Automatic annotation (TrEMBL):
Family statement: Belongs to the ExbD/TolR family.
Pfam families, A to Z: ExbD
Name of protein: Biopolymer transport protein ExbD/TolR
Biological processes per GO annotation: protein transport
Subcellular location: Cell membrane
Domain of life: Bacteria
Gene Ontology CC: plasma membrane
Keywords: Cell membrane, Membrane, Protein transport, Transmembrane, Transmembrane helix, Transport
Any one GO molecular-function label of the UniProt entry: transmembrane transporter activity
Membrane topology: Single-pass membrane protein; Single-pass type II membrane protein
Residues that span the membrane, as ranges: 20-37
Predominant location: membrane
């Protein structure tokens, strides 16, 4: 038996416009309130291996200390590396760093030597850059020889 319907059924449609608006508002809200935080606890600490007490330590295990002293005008008055007075000659600084560190580079898995630059408060910045240039490496023909890549600064002295 067939039932005829003269009245056509109304189709119900769901209006998605307001739902899309809400989704975009939520997206904008979360993007605008997102805060990037630094990783905590990511320390690169290398503990020394257990050894006998009479073992000789490598002088490059500790940071090498470069001391830059300034005169009253802010010019470089004197410079020393590990207590050795070098005057104001940056080539002497480089030579002494090469003697302490060598030109082979760090061993596999080793991060290499570290230098701590200790300056007077009124020392001109150009002298600090010259010292960093002298200890970081040099150019031998077309080849760049790296000496020290890790450089840190001590608190400036007044």
């Amino acid at each position: 038996m067939k039932i005829r319907r003269d009245v056509e059924q109304e189709k119900s449609q769901l209006d998605m416009t307001s739902m899309i608006d809400v989704v975009f508002l939520l997206l904008v809200f979360f993007v605008m309130t997102f805060k990037i935080v630094e990783l905590e606890g990511d320390f690169s600490i290398h503990m020394p291996l257990a050894g006998t007490s009479n073992s000789v330590s490598d002088p490059t295990d500790l940071p090498l200390k470069v001391r830059l002293r300034a005169d009253a005008d802010g010019k470089l008055a004197s410079m020393s590396l590990e207590g050795i007075d070098l005057g104001t000659d940056f080539t002497k600084l480089r030579t002494n760093v090469i003697q302490l560190v060598g030109t082979d580079g760090p061993a596999e898995g080793d991060e290499g030597p570290e230098i701590e630059v200790d300056t007077d408060y009124n020392l001109r910045y150009a002298h600090v850059i010259e010292a960093i240039t002298a200890v970081s490496g040099y150019k031998d023909g077309d080849q760049v020889v790296k000496l020290v890549e890790k450089i840190k600064f001590a608190k400036p002295r007044r």
